[in-house]
Amino acid sequence: MTDHRLTVAAAQLGPIQKAEPREVAVARMVRLMERAHHRGVELVVFPELALTTFFPRHYCEQIAEADPWFESAMPSNATAPLFEAARRYGIGFHLGYAELTTEPDETGAVRPRRFNTAILVSPAGEILLKYRKVHLPGHAEFDPRRKVQHLEKRYFEVGNLGFPVIRAPMGALPGVNMGMMICNDRRWPEAWRVLGLQSVELVMLGYNTPSINQEAGGFEAHHLRVFHSHLSIQAGCYQNACFAVATAKAGTEDGCELFGHSIIVNPQGEIIAQAGSWDDELITADCDFGMCTLGRTTIFAFEKHRRPEAYQRITSQVGAVAPPVWPA
Ligand code: CDT
Predict the structure, then answer these.
(1) In CATH, what number is assigned to the domain containing residue 11?
(2) Is residue 133 flagged as an active site residue?
């Protein structure tokens, strides 16, 4: 029987404080890759913005003041040890980071651009796939009502690469269909379905999610924050017949708590591994991609059952409209 299994890990990171240089974070990540190697892992998934503190909680009047938190080269001197570890151990990895690039915008003007980005790197150290976060939560201006800011809309542009999927060798497998999303994207079924429509088998995603909802638009109990994260990922996997490795940054960072609870989920929507600490922690699972077949050929055989003609509102409309009122 053909073996379709890949051993994957979520490499959860404990907090990275504001003053900590990225070299310290990279050294921690290399240690996690070494542990992954000892546990037979073939692909490691690191969190969103894994190299620094979650800096969108800090306000800078001039956006360029935040540039020290961004990477303008990948790899760089500071991140090269991750690529070297990948080659040394023969392990692929997924990395989230803040990307500063100079490239044309939609009008053709060449200018500095900032994205919340993730890459997938092969065991040979080549970048196989890049994704730029589409759903940016939070706000663009300083909000005096909030105890903690969430300024992703200030520091990042909306990702312009869609939701790409690549089929590439990984571990002992000749090809795995791999795609990415970042943090808030996991709450949007549209993102999962766009990946599902490209036959994704493994979704990699990193997140930084505060334990407390600072939006203060209504009460959200602490435990429900974790529940909603897991619910979204488990539903995404089930409805698109894929695995997901969802990796958190966890613990108290710059005085703000991030809830951790990294998970690996199978195509039945079951959690097959879960982090128990709010620290650097490696959780692993064997993903048998043969498990994707059941959903894909039965209840979620898209080619047989999807009705895009009835979904027109999904792409033509952004906000919700009010329904007609009865009686007409
Ligand atoms: N990083 C990220 O996208 N975090 C969001 C928190 C939203 S609160 C403004 C999340 O959806 O987990």
Answers:
(1) 3.60.110.10
(2) yes
Kindly report the number of other CB atoms within 10 A of residue 67's CB atom.
15
pLDDT, tens digit, 9 for 90 and up, residues 237-255 = 999 999 999 999 999 999 9
- Closest-CA residue to 95 (of 65, 64, 71): 71
The CA 152 to ligand 1 mean position distance, Å, reads 9
In a domain, residue 308? The reply is no
- The answer to whether residue 310 sits within a structural domain is no
Letter for the amino acid at 74?
Answer: M
Asked if residue 27 is part of any domain, the answer here is yes
Residues 6 or more apart from 152 whose CB is under 8 A from it? 56, 116, 133, 136, 137, 138
Q: Which of 42, 183, 281, 292 is catalytic?
A: 183
Please identify which residue in the block is written with the tokens 């809830």: 259
Q: Letter for the amino acid at 117?
A: T
Diameter of the chain measured on Cα atoms: 70
The H or E element containing residue 46 is: none
147 noted as active-site residue: no
Annotated active-site residue in 42, 71, 99, 133: 133
The token duo for 60 is 């800078």
**What does DSSP say about strands 165-170 and 271-274: parallel, antiparallel, or unpaired?**
unpaired
Name the residue of 208, 214, 231 whose CB sits within 8 Å of the most ligand 1 atoms, as the mutation to test its pocket.
Answer: 208
Q: Is 325 within a domain?
A: no
The model's pLDDT over 179-190, given as tens digits with 9 standing for 90+, comes to 999 999 999 999
Residue among 73, 72, 31, 22 nearest 50 (CA): 22
pTM over 0.90: yes
- Structural domain for 166, as ranges: 5-296
Q: Which two tokens stand for residue 249?
A: 């940054």
Q: How many domains does the chain have?
A: 1
- Ligand 1: residues with CB < 6 A are 48, 137-138, 150, 183-184, 187, 207-209
